[in-house]
Amino acid sequence: MKNKPKNKNVIYLGLLSLFGGISLDLVAPIIPTFITTVLGFDKTFLGLTEGLATSSSSLFKIVSGILTDKYKKRKPIIFVGYLLSMLSRIFLAFVSATPLIVLMRTLDGTGRGIKDAPKDTLIADSSGANERGKQFGIVRALDTLGSVAGPIMLFGLLAVLTNNTNKFHLIFLVSALPLVITLLLIVFKIKETGKEVQASIQTSGPLPAKFYLFMVLLAVFGLGNASEAFLLLKAQDTGVSILALPLVYALLNFVYALAAIPLGSLSDRIGRKKILMLGWAIFSFSYLGFAFVQNSLLLLLLFVLYGIYYAATFGVIKALISDLVAVNQRGRAYGIYNALLSVIALPAGLIAGGLWDRFGSTYTFGFGAVMCLITLILFALFSFRPVGKVA
């Protein structure tokens, strides 16, 4: 009976991610078009804008991770994160000037940064060691279902608002509505675990060397991991219409949601390392495909493969991080990990956009495939067995 409330807590955290995903992916597919077509900027500026918006959240990811380990209450930190994202999307409905757009995107990224570490820690604390991959898979699956529903809703809104000159601003406003539900879930349904947080106040040792080694490898991979904005631009170049872009994005996320729980559960049985290596191998193959694809049907198959890569890596990486550190270190570990993703997004975006503008998309995706292969080889050379006490 003791584990039942914890598992229920994971479901509510998954629902939190579901509605957060709906909100995020109502706007994510149109951001590249908004910046490059509506505002008229080039791909380098797109990489700079998206990278800067994401990187700006890095400080808050680290701070929220430290606060997560230090204090008993994690829900208030998560609440603030979702609240900032909601406010940023409301304001996006009323602004059009470029600096204000960048400011709102930065505020949105900051909100995501604040909530990530405490939410990941609460998932880990609500899961047993032998089911952590599965539980992270459940949350990722629900999150990704939101990323399926969001683009489908976006498709409907774009169809209805085709001739409306303010359609982007109206969509930004609608995207704030699901975040109201996330705030209600945090207040009324999600529970603090408490016990693990109290232990973290009493001790605070250094994070293991293997954790930092893993972060270095993720940084190498991240330099070649272009924003999804570039995948959508590639889809446009291959002949996919702006109206159909949300459906392509939904396909990617549907595959992701479908495979997240099975692959997360498989990582519990055969080990995180094997599943991560599989995921990175798929990434390299799909990026090589994006580098040369000219056919729309083949492009869709590559988006399916990319969804499988997501399912094999994102939740499994978080489960492995939990394995590598002690209970009292999870908040800091997730804070560093999420901050790393934010910091690396800026140079990755600049590299991807610069290569595309100067040499074409083949070089952007070819560079990503090579960086992933380097990561895969290095990852295979080291052992990443659990370190310290794992709950």
Give your account of this protein's structure.
By secondary structure, the chain is mainly α. The chain has a single domain (3-381), classed as Up-down Bundle (Growth Hormone, Chain: A), CATH 1.20.1250.20. It is built from 17 helices and no strands. Helix 1 (3-27) packs antiparallel against helix 9 (177-188), helix 6 runs antiparallel to helix 16 (330-359) and helix 13 (245-270) packs antiparallel against helix 14. It starts with a helix and ends in a 10-residue tail after the last helix.
Key structural traits:
about 400 residues, mainly alpha, Growth Hormone, Chain: A, globular
Please outline what is shown here:
By secondary structure, the protein is mainly α.
Itemize the secondary structure elements and their pairings.
Layout lengths: L2 H25 L3 H8 L4 H13 L2 H13 L4 H18 L5 H28 L6 H29 L6 H8 L2 H12 L6 H8 L6 H15 L4 H10 L7 H26 L1 H21 L3 H29 L5 H30 L1 H21 L10
Helix pairs in contact: 1-6, 1-7, 1-9, 3-6, 3-16, 4-6, 4-16, 5-6, 5-8, 5-9, 6-16, 7-13, 7-15, 11-16, 11-17, 13-14, 13-15, 14-15, 14-17, 16-17
Number of helices: 17
The total domain count is 1
Instruction: Report the major sheet.
Output: none
Strand content: under 5%
Helix content: over 70%
| Average pLDDT metric | 84
Order of helices and strands: HHHHHHHHHHHHHHHHH
Structural class, by secondary structure, is: mainly alpha
CATH superfamily: MFS general substrate transporter like domains
The CATH class, by name, is Mainly Alpha
Low-pLDDT segments, ≥5 res: 1-5, 195-203
**CATH topology annotation:** Growth Hormone, Chain: A
